[in-house]
Amino acid sequence: MAYCRNCGSEVSDEAVVCPHCGVQVKELAKTKSGAHIVDSGGFGWGLLGFCIPVVGLVLYLVWRYDRPLTSKALGIGALVGFISSIIIYVVYFIFFFDYLYLY
Ligand SMILES: [Zn+2]
């Protein structure tokens, strides 16, 4: 077990960010595999989340700690995509029920 520098809570050795106070406890580049993880975030990931909100949500949960910038872009994209699809759905049903009422 490691301890958070900020609040002193016990933090899992796997954790990059303290679950208690949210402060980064480990360098992002120095993960257990030692491989350099590309965490660029960016519009492409947001677009992926927007187009496929379910994938965006899953990747957001998986990459929450390892790739905070990328997961944030995915999460925002997924949220926007999800809300947009609900709006489209609602608008569709408004027109659909309007149609039923008239004919
Ligand atoms: Zn902490």
Describe the SSE topology.
Layout: E1 2-3, E2 10-11, H1 43-51, H2 53-63, H3 68-102
Antiparallel strand pairs: 1-2
The structure holds zinc ion.
On the 0 to 100 scale, the average pLDDT is 83
Low-confidence stretches: none
Number of helices: 3
Question: Care to count the β-strands?
Answer: 2
Gyration radius over CA: 20 Å
Strand order, largest beta sheet: 1-2
Order of helices and strands: EEHHH
Principal-axis shape equals elongated
Biggest sheet features:
2 strands, antiparallel
Strand residues, percent: under 5%
**What structural class results from the helix and strand content?**
mainly alpha
Distance between the termini: 68 Å
The bound ligands are:
zinc ion
Number of domains: 2
Helix content: 40-55%
Molecular structure report:
The protein contains three helices and two strands, in the order E-E-H-H-H. It has 103 residues and is mainly α. It folds into two domains: 37 residues, no CATH class; 66 residues. The chain has a two-stranded antiparallel ribbon with strand order 1-2. The longest helix is centred in the C-terminal third of the chain and has 35 residues. The protein is elongated and about 65 Å long.
